[in-house]
Amino acid sequence: MFFLHEMERTILIHPSFFGPRMRDYIDTQLLHDVEGKNAGSYFIICVMEGYHVSEGRVVPGSSHAEYTVHYRAVVWRPFKGEVVNGKLKQLDGIVTSVVETGFFVDVGPISAFVAKTMIPSDIKFDGNATPAQWTDNADQVIEKGTHIRLKVKGIRVELGSMFAIATIKEDYLGPLA
Amino acid sequence: MRIFAVLMDYEIEKYREELTNLECVDLVEHVVGMLIKSPRNLHYPITVTELLKRPSDEVERFAPLFSYYYTSKVTERNEFGDESQVERKFPTKFECETNGTILNWKINAETVISAPGIPIVEVDEPCRHEIQFGGMCATCGKNMDEVNYATSVRDSARAPINMTHGHTALTVSHTEASRVEEEAKRRLLSNRRLSLVVDLDQTIIHATVDPTVAEWQKDEDNPNHDAVKDVRAFQLVDDGPGGRGCWYYIKLRPGLEEFLKNISKLYELHIYTMGTRAYAQNIAKIVDPDRKIFGDRILSRDESGSLQVKTLHRLFPVDTKMVVIIDDRGDVWNWSHNLIKVTAYDFFVGIGDINSSFLPKRDPLPPMLKPPVIELAPGHDRNQKPEGDGGSSIQTKEPQTTETTVPGVETPVSALEQQLVSMGGGSDPIVLEQQTTQQEEKITAQVTDRPLLKLQKKLDEADEEAAAMENGNNADEPSQDSHKHRHNLLQDHDNELAHLETNLRHIHEKFFEEYEKSLASSHGGRVAELRGEKAAKKRPVDDLELVPDVKDIMPSMKCEVLKNVSIVFSGLIPLGTNIQYADIAIWARSFGAEVTQDITRRTTHVVASKQRKTAKVKQAARRPRIKIVSLDWLLECFQTWRRPEEVLYEIEVHPDEAGPQIALASSPLEELQDGVVLSSSEDEAAINDETTAAPTPLSVITGDVNEAEDLMPTSPIDEKALRGTQEEWDSMNAEIDEMLAESGSDDDGGESDSSIGSSTSSKSNKKRKRGTDSGNSSAAEDSDSSVKSSQGSRLQRRKKRALERVTSLTNVTIAEKSTGLPSPDTTGPEDPQGVEAGDGEGDDLEDDEDFEAEMMAEFERDDDESDAG
């Protein structure tokens, strides 16, 4: 689910950047540091305009200047039970690889796995096809590159990466036409 | 009584029924619940008092399953403060670690459980967590790393197998793995295909990061332009040194496209490489742009789980019956029977495998195998080779051939160590880091050093020198004309893949031939079996059991190639190495050849380097039955799986170099001996060898000169070799010294010499004189041994016997030749070659000593045997 989340970040600036264009530098530094990154249990999608930069302070003992930036960002936090069918293009699941035990889907920044047991029984694995695919021999074909809608069944966060288990064994889930 | 019997029958019937039920169930799915065993952390022995659940009861996690008590000694204090040790019973309950349904109990009330690991109860779980992804069960989404006080087996340990190509996060259980594999096998069988695991580097492609390639590609005048114009390139950003992008230049092995197209009809192809994933994917994009051939079946070092060894079980955890591997390295596969080792594709000369830093060091042998430069650029070699032996060599070759001592001692040890490291998983982070830096350094070095450019420059220089010598003017300006003269460093002639395709086809044919055979025979059996009811049910299982094993088929095909061949390597494997562990030897053995250290009576081939005539070669040259071939012959065998004509690969050894030829084949006596004393005939020959090998009784060769010449046509090299440069002698002497030092326990080489010496004193005198002439130390040794010869009656007896043999043989040869010379005494001194050879003789003397030492040892052994008999 998407949220608008208020956050704070401390940015250190090297003295070589001190000058009239410093504010620009802080901007780019912030965007570079946080956007698209995994912040624990959620992902920072986009930093909103109009954030507030505090007064700079030179850190004693070093020549760096320290700025605290308050900003608001659109974050995405996947929940168990959430159906991932976001209108945002990047949050459509894209199948990355198909194996006999299921298939892997990239949902934005997470890698999700849909196991055999989470696939409707009429969709079968076809290893002879190149590339290999899951198909019901009708309009539903799941192969590498297929856009797919799925429901998150479990999420696990490890340092810097997130894994999800998902299913397509429910109504309105599966490959998007 | 009768009732009892009926009951028994009933029981048996029931049991049978149960069995068949079980089998049916087995075929459909393994419905075996989780077996809970007695955990480690209890105070054994424990005595069960009551089972709290009945079969088919639902249980929750942490629900009590049964109650039990254990006894323990405790210290108790009574009201007066007296301490006493008392044994007490402690009743408690056993809690279930999982939820599910009780299937059946393995214990009863009153059972005493005495140790951990005893089955208690079987519980059917709602989810057996057979497929796990990133620490979660892919079916129920439960966290697999959760541990509580009741846990006996970690959930994550229930799915230990990682069998998918591109992901390490996905693991499956053994049952699931075999199920998946079974399905895959059925699919392959129905398509009549097998699996083929393909290595990338130096097997189907050759990669380099040397930017010279790009320059050559642009420069049409460059002599290498033709060879590199179809080289493909890609850039990997994160992989290069210093984090910036690094261009990789990929040369496809000639005929690759065709090969993949044809082979993919018969095999399902997998990539298994020691390169990174990004690298592997880029290569796959080049060799298989439509992703039709490899699909997603790419396994790189990021997922392989080991940086040193490759194992089939990573991809085929249960069964490798239908898998064939092609790789240029046997050691990383531990010489698996599924492996077809191919000749390394070495297009960018001197580059090697850019992804091999993590692998055990390769045997130094292979790089010298294909000498593409040699034939085209003779004469002006890149390194100053001492002898003008006709052949020149690539740079890499030099240190291995001549400096046998230094690497010879080091290589085997380090190779072994590396192997051990790789066996141990090599997870040492320090080593790993070192290797990572090594890898980076290697890449950086290649980018900056441009080894190719250097090599070509050297080649050009040599060319220019040659041109300058010819024309005398256009040395500095490389005009259009001189371009034509420039030799190209990179050669593009490699036909490995064509042969490989044929071989793979044969394997495929043979496999399915055998499969159909066994299928047919089982069908026949099945008709008979059809009367039984269960036959139909069992069919599908049988089908897979009938599948023949590639591990049986391939070796049997390969063993045919060099059957009854016994090989001795000479000048190829560094001294001090255990030849049995040398790459080339293992490779040869996998084709059914026998590899021995020294020339024995069974030796049929001596595989030698062209450059040096080692003692073994000379030794072999004296026996017409032993074929002396170059390494190319052996490689041709490996490549084509056929035994090529030896004649094409024969190394010519001039009779003078070899020492006198023995007339084994032509001698009627020899044949007679062969017939009469079969077992010892070879030894007899050996003795003859030994005795005639001494340079003086050359009468033998006069009897056989024609044949010797037929066998070994004189080549221009021989003359040179005859004259012999000083360096050549030096290196030979050095080698002989080594060998002598090695065979320390052997009999003194001089002894056998002296046996002849004493028999024909005039000759020995002459020999000694000649020895002194050539300034050789052998003279001293000679006289030494003649002193020795006076001691020991046993030795003398032996000598006498040897002498007798000599005379008989020489007589016969002469008779056959019918020169009319009455006795060996007259022929001996008359021999023209002995006088002519002069300088060359000195070397022969030395060689012969060495050789005789060996022969003497053999002789003695045999003597002992005959004495005993």
TrEMBL record, chain A:
Q: Which GO terms describe its molecular function?
A: single-stranded DNA binding; single-stranded RNA binding; translation initiation factor binding
Tell me where in or outside the cell this protein is found.
Answer: Nucleus
Which UniProt key words apply to this protein? Answer: DNA-directed RNA polymerase, Nucleus, Transcription
Which InterPro entries is this protein grouped with? Answer: NA-bd_OB-fold (IPR012340), RNA_pol_Rpb7-like_N_sf (IPR036898), Rpb7-like (IPR045113), Rpb7-like_N (IPR005576), S1_domain (IPR003029)
Coiled-coil spans in chain: none
**GO cellular component entries:** P-body; RNA polymerase II, core complex
Q: Name one GO biological process term.
A: transcription initiation at RNA polymerase II promoter
CDD domains recorded: RNAP_II_Rpb7_N, S1_RNAPII_Rpb7
Recorded superkingdom: Eukaryota
Domain named S1 motif is located at 81-169
Q: What PANTHER family has UniProt attached to this entry? A: DNA-DIRECTED RNA POLYMERASE II SUBUNIT RPB7, DNA-DIRECTED RNA POLYMERASE II, III
According to its UniProt entry, the function of this protein is described as: DNA-dependent RNA polymerase which catalyzes the transcription of DNA into RNA using the four ribonucleoside triphosphates as substrates.
Sequence similarity: Belongs to the eukaryotic RPB7/RPC8 RNA polymerase subunit family.
Q: What is this protein called?
A: DNA-directed RNA polymerase subunit
Name the lineage.
Eukaryota, Fungi, Dikarya, Ascomycota, Pezizomycotina
From TrEMBL, chain B:
- Please note every region of biased composition (Basic and acidic residues): 378-388
**Which keywords label this protein?**
Hydrolase, Nucleus
Concerning Pfam families, the annotation shows: BRCT, NIF
Q: Which residues cross the membrane?
A: none
User: What ranges does the record list as Acidic residues composition bias?
Assistant: 742-751, 838-869
Which residue range or ranges hold the BRCT domain?
557-651
FCP1 homology domain segment(s): 189-365
Where does the UniProt entry say this protein principally localizes?
A: nucleus
Keyword check for Cell inner membrane, yes or no. Answer: no
The record's listing under InterPro entries reads: BRCT_dom, BRCT_dom_sf, Fcp1, FCP1_dom, FCP1_euk, HAD-like_sf, HAD_sf
What function is annotated for this protein? This promotes the activity of RNA polymerase II.
User: What is the protein name stated in its UniProt record?
Assistant: RNA polymerase II subunit A C-terminal domain phosphatase
Record the organism: Patellaria atrata CBS 101060
